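Record format v2
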Amino acid sequence: MLELRLVQGSLLKKVLESIKDLVNDANFDCSATGFSLQAMDSSHVALVALLLRSEGFEHYRCDRNISMGMNLGNMAKMLKCAGNDDIITLKADDGSDTVTFMFESPTQDKIADFEMRLMDIDSEHLGIPEAEYHAILIMPSAEFARICKDLSSIGDTVVISVTKEGVKFSTRGDIGTANVVCRQNTTVDKPEEATVIEMPEPVSLTFALRYLNSFTKATPLSNTVTISLSSEIPVVVEYKIAEMGYIRFYLAPKIEE
Amino acid sequence: PCLQRKIAEYFISG
């Protein structure tokens, strides 16, 4: 028996909106730790890892570890039917091939349930090794989204270079080139508006903008984004989910042939 | 030209 009650149902709506275009089908794993997902995009270039810790749910019952295969497009369609203020409860019986999403309005005057068929998904689970990153960049998530969007109108790839002076995002395309430099800026009114570069070891990596733009669909989940970079390994783009966990996107770099 | 790496080249399967 599985029963997960999430008072801030909008979080789950936002999570689905942020990953449904990157990943088609995925297994959601439920254990005593929480509700999690790990999945690659169809071209196996990016990986998404989601964790919603059990403590973040108002009620969390998971009698045994289970994995539920879902089509994320269909799940997003169902969650779109929940109001932004609704409480969302996920329910599944042992051995059942369906999951039920129950939506309760805050005043309890409307209760809806949507049942969705589960799928058998043969997914490969990857172990993500601990890495020491050369540079960790924390910046407003909206600013990062803006940079990715702007640069993708000029070129297809971005070179992210970190130096002691700051971080530079560069692209080039048929019509010209573009560079955006962000300097460390901690003298702001609100901490979420700061740009912080931790451990600024020089590092320069190239990534496909298409994927970074897709990751920025998670912007509504968090005011800040943390970007961890190290030479020749995937970048991690992390959006923390308040009080509950995180959504992390890993993207393999492009290498000069 | 740049070659796009796959994510599984960096992470351990299983």
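The longest strand of chain B covers residues 2-4.
The beta strands of chain B are 2-4, 12-13.
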